[in-house]
Design brief:
402 residues; 12 helices; alpha+beta; two-stranded antiparallel sheet; eight-stranded antiparallel sheet; transit peptide (chains A, B); homodimer; 13 strands; heme biosynthesis (chains A, B)
């Protein structure tokens, strides 16, 4: 299970999978599960690149990241591509189609960002694990338009402790103890920080999770679910931008269920909450997790629709704001808000905090942090100012679409 | 107990008091104790300054911070200054002398920093609580030499849950349940970030803690202990600077016990450890906590000696490095190391993380964060470079004094 974390590309990413099983407050319980994870430099002179990641579950599984020079056509295990009787092993399985989708999204988003940037290019890191799975991290840093943009995909085969498998409980007669349960996880995750203080930051993440049916617990089913979201974090409010962004999210949601947008909009406001500031990180969007109480095909289509909505939701805003003239004061305010972004990600974001604690690929996890951030003592925006309006909207989430 | 946190001025500050009672891993247990803490804006338009802090312990105690226009001559309760039979209530009590010491240290350190800076001046915030206690926060921001320097003192009267009082256990016969135990805490805490990338950051914190004897548990004694430390975080190593710094720490220690420096030097290396990077925040110094197995007067003198050693340990280094010419690359590396500082303080520092979770005075807690910080994807210093040497010393702590 923890290996889902290890290859987690970014904040609130695939790393949130394990939380399906437990409330956020029981994170420490998860950490103390019978899994040991090591991420140690092998020599005194070695650097981050030499960090090897091993996962040792109660099953004895050990996985180690291997850098790859080329992208494989799939990170799925061969058995998943074959034609065994197992549904998940077919080439048109949900896991296969989800991987195809997130890799296409990674390609199209990176292409769109490079296109808007004009100068910056994405640097790519590819890795795999011997037992299957792997990931592609892409980062564009210090471009003409973007300060830092990370777009990562990962596919993980892991093993979760049986205690974490909810579905096993109802048929547990107290005599049989199911063994560790294999799981599959895949996700795309991205944080994009532009340079211009009037151009907003965006974050999106879409993920799919599947477990095998526990072998020793007859009747306990295979489990699956979807999670994800897209949210906007401006330093200044342009109401037309925020409305456009939320409208695109709503449009994607409404194609599937009229209840989705209001429900996932509120979920987003609740999730990206900086408790010690009593304010949200930004102006929200949509967020959902543990979604499996709808048709699986419908949710695959829904996730695909959401992921494909990132470009139409975000790129027009960037096109409009990337060259807006700004002052040092505007930049300083953006940097202060970046500080809040850092606070949320390091203190609250489940994927980040869990990933850090369990020894995930640090550079992939922390690619969500901005290139630069700022903390001024007791900064108070002047009431009624543009900075104050943004802060007010972070404190009191608004309905952007009437 | 939590009110110790609430007025905690900074990282690894007085906030670490409660941890006397529990291992770091049981922080969440502390959070779930029967205390409720509220830090809410009172109106939609209010800002941080209006954040009121209330502590509601099982005893029903409610404390609220009140801004003060003048510094009181003491934050001790009147009873502590009187001449009742209670030892702690005498004017020459340890708590009274400790408060006097930390306020003198605050004055002298601030004067020395303003003197070196030449331009920047400290801004002061004073607050008190109706039931006694209070604090003085001083921040110098964007000076000529210092990017951000915070020097805070605080005095706290709180109540800790009986479950947290170790000394009560041996005489607990299982029939009597002791009530909440009043405690007293006082500390000085400071983080100083200079502008010049060759001038190091310093952090120091000295604190004293006392409990009353539990009334309902005959034989359970009054408890007290000392904690603190001073540590250096450069972006570049000047061996003579680091040796000077450690020599002053060793000199202070050796006046009291030859075992102190080696023991507290290692404790410091162990405490300021960024686990997910497998590196220390900086080049260490001394750190100790829970110290009560020596004569109380001796430890008061030792804490005083350590606190008074900050100026001779640090100011000569700043004088030497504040005007060293530097390039954009030097500055960028300093900013990257500032990013590590942020990571340590937000992810690991007990005082900061606990303070954030329990609703402390945010601006005082986060004054430890630098004015600006930076995160580059997968930055790797060139082997053998000055940046690499610093990183290597953070990964492999050295003995600076042979």
């Amino acid at each position: 299970m923890l290996s889902a974390i290890l290859s987690s590309p970014s904040s609130s990413s695939t790393s949130t999978f394990p939380l399906r099983y437990s409330s956020p407050s029981s994170l420490t319980n998860l950490s103390s599960l019978p899994l040991t994870i090591g991420c140690r430099r092998t020599s005194k002179k070695s650097t981050h690149n030499n960090c090897s990641i091993r996962v040792q579950a109660s099953s004895g599984m050990i996985e180690k990241e291997t850098p790859e020079t080329e992208r494989p056509h799939t990170f799925l295990r061969e058995s998943d591509e074959g034609s065994s009787g197992d549904e998940s092993s077919k080439p048109n399985s949900v896991r296969a189609r989800f991987e195809k989708m997130i890799r296409e999204v990674q390609d199209s988003v990176c292409a769109a960002l490079e296109d808007v940037d004009g100068g910056g290019k994405f640097k790519e890191d590819v890795w795999s694990r011997p037992g299957g799975g792997g990931g592609i991290s892409r980062v564009l840093q210090d471009g003409d338009v973007f300060e830092k943009a990370g777009v990562n995909v990962s596919v993980v085969y892991g093993v979760m402790p049986p205690e974490a498998y909810r579905a096993a409980r109802p048929v547990d007669n107290g005599n049989t103890k199911p063994g560790p349960i294999p799981f599959f996880a895949a996700g795309v995750s991205s944080v994009i920080h532009p340079k211009n203080p009037f151009a907003p930051t965006v974050h999106f993440n879409y993920r799919y999770f599947e477990t095998d049916a526990p072998k020793d617990t007859p009747g306990a089913p295979r489990q699956w679910w979807f999670g994800g979201g897209t949210d906007l974090t401006p330093a200044y409010i342009f109401e037309e931008d925020v409305k456009h962004f939320h409208s695109v999210q709503k449009g994607a949601c409404d194609k599937f269920d009229a209840s989705f947008y209001p429900r996932f909009k509120k979920w987003c406001d609740d999730y990206f909450y900086i408790k010690h500031r009593d304010e949200r990180r930004g102006l929200g969007g949509i967020f959902f997790d543990d979604l499996n109480d709808y048709d699986q095909e419908m949710l695959l289509s829904f996730s695909t629709e959401c992921a494909n909505s990132v470009i139409p939701a975000y790129i027009p805003i960037i096109e409009k704001r990337k060259d807006t003239p700004f002052t040092d004061e505007h930049k300083a305010w953006q940097q202060l808000r970046r500080g809040r972004y850092v606070e949320f990600n390091l203190v609250y974001d489940r994927g980040t905090t869990f990933g850090l604690k369990t020894g995930g690929r640090i550079e992939s996890i922390l690619v969500s942090l901005p290139l630069s951030a700022r903390w001024e003592y007791d900064h108070q925006p002047v009431e009624g100012s543009e900075e104050w309006k943004l802060l007010d909207a972070c404190i009191n989430p608004k309905e952007w679409i009437c």
